[in-house]
Specification:
- It is built from three helices and four strands, in the order αβαββαβ.
- It has 126 residues and is of the alpha+beta class.
- The chain has a four-stranded antiparallel sheet.
- The relative contact order is 0.14.
- It is found in: Nucleus.
- Keywords: Nucleus, Repeat, RNA-binding.
């Protein structure tokens, strides 16, 4: 009698594991099926690249200062200084989004290595 109960418990555990495995397998297949049909990200062509990295910024440099330096070109869409998520202090770099790849090249050639207004530091763009 005791052996029969042990056998029944083992069978119940085996069925539970089989059911769990089937559930995981079905979930995995659903995920793979769903994931397979999602669009893959398109590669960015050189003509679409229009954001410049700006680095080695002093702690006091903000979006307003950079905007005053380059917005007169009429080609700046946005400027973003990256900040520490906890302290909100600037991390010393940011991004300048421009209207076109050609504008990106013009700003890079015009400003990279030149002195930043009111400082002894130079623009470092990439």
């Amino acid at each position: 009698m005791q052996q029969q109960q042990q056998w029944m418990q083992q069978q119940a555990r085996h069925q539970t594991w089989e059911g769990a495995a089937a559930t995981v397998s079905a979930s995995s297949q659903t995920y793979q099926h769903h994931h397979h049909h999602q669009q893959q990200p398109q590669l960015t062509s050189i003509e679409e690249i229009r954001t410049l990295w700006i680095g080695d910024l002093q702690y006091w440099v903000d979006e307003t200062y950079l905007s005053c330096c380059v917005s007169h070109t009429g080609e700046v869409i946005s400027i973003k200084i990256i900040r520490n998520k906890i302290t909100s202090e600037p991390e010393g770099y940011g991004f300048i989004e421009l209207t076109s790849h050609a504008a990106d090249e013009r700003i890079l050639q015009t400003y990279n290595g030149t002195q930043m207004p009111g400082t002894e530091h130079t623009f470092r763009l990439n």
